[in-house]
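LAB NOTEBOOK - FOLDING QUEUE
OPERATOR: T.R.
BATCH SIZE: 2
PURPOSE: Compare the predicted structure-token outputs for two unrelated chains run back to back under identical settings.
PRIORITY: normal
REVIEWER: second-year student, initials M.K.

ITEM 1
FIELD SEQUENCE / FIELD STRUCTURE:
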Amino acid sequence: MRLAVTIVMVGLLMGGCARHQEDKWTRSRPATYRVTGRVEMQGKPVDGAKVVFHTAVPVNGKDYSAFGYTDDGGAFTLQTFRDGDGAVAGEHWVTVEKITYSDPPLPKNEGDPLSPPVETSHLPARYRSGKTSGITATVEPNRRNSFTFTIEEK
């Protein structure tokens, strides 16, 4: 009986470790640094917004994006490769968007095609593109990378 329990425990431990085992792909990834922040509009937190950092200059010839979603207090934590790992070092263009979807109106006649869900953007459209948002951020190694972004209604 003890042998069976030992085998099961070893199997569980090895299985848990295998998920984070390094391979040639994970070793080739650039380092990431923890990034947190807050999004607000009119002095209030913006909840449910997607924040994305896009590398402004490629790292080792590649572009990387890190993303996170704001909570009820407007706070976010970014991830690039796995939950909470942050963003690569360097200058980033930042996008912020909050989109919800609702059911489309029902077809008027039987056999009419269904409409796609209705998309509603809750923030100004310019924040959906890194080139028009006007927001940049620099992620630095061994620093506290915490940012507050204020969304303007214009």
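ITEM 2
FIELD SEQUENCE / FIELD STRUCTURE:
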Amino acid sequence: MQWTEASATKRLEELKMSDMPVTPINPRTVRVSPDWFQRYKELCHTFTKSLSDCVQELALMNLGRDEFMSLLMGREIPDNLSIRFRTPLIWGGELSTDNLFMCYTFPLAQNLDRFIIEQSGNETVWLPNPKKKIYLPIHSTLAGNGGNAVADRLSQMAANIASSRRQP
């Protein structure tokens, strides 16, 4: 059954991602370069190093200091985090950082896979397309008035890294 934007949005609400924007595409299989995976790994390295401008989202991810630093330095992606394509390569997506976003593997990436698979065979497929480089559902970003010293400290570290990268 062909989904509409309203039915896609409703399904995302059921999957606890009511704030996830969607983009329609008409999936047409295209040839993917044989070296795509090697290029993807290099792109992921570049992508993670670019996350220093996402300190607010990173601070809310409950990463330890070592995980946080490894991620920002492009060394390692912490467990339970996934880098996803906004538009899959097989459907014409580009190998570029603009076509990537990061989210928790469980349950978010798994639910996003389910969301796309449920549309299998449809003429138009609604793809998840978060506004930022890191997707955290709105319900996980709401905080109380008490503050978070770890988040504040990690935010400060990320800001220092970002400013050092901008200096020649």
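REVIEWER COMMENT (ITEM 2): The chain has seven helices and four strands.
FOLLOW-UP: none requested
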